[in-house]
Amino acid sequence: MAARGGGGMTASTRLAYQYVVLRCVPRVDREEFLNVGVVVYCQSADYLEVAWEVDRDRLAALDPGLDLDQVCEALTFVEGVCAGDERGGAAGAKPPGQRFGFLKAPRSTVLQPGPVHGGVTTDPARQLDHLLSKLVT
């Protein structure tokens, strides 16, 4: 995962943020999924980051034929979009708000974003870690 920064905010600054949980949906027709990552976007801190963890055994239990390396490649693409680098292709070249918009858009692929949620935090990076441990691991 990429390094995370706090954008120079003080500890008492309360920042609004949005997040989506990334779901691995091995068979869209069965509507079964496993949470594999979280994307947090905080406009005021210029923060867009993903954290993810793939539980290969649990995913294989949902679909033994699932290409787990492809799931990890898709999550690496999301990292590139968040970082704004070449791994994110054309989407990575956009401003952070547009990159988050791209990542939160519904799609019918193996890796899908859940609904957008929001909150307030003093530290977006710490919030990302908290959401990952609460919703994924």
UniProtKB/TrEMBL annotation:
Source organism: Nocardioides koreensis
Stated name of the protein: DUF3037 domain-containing protein
InterPro entries documented for this protein: DUF3037 (IPR021398)
Pfam families: DUF3037
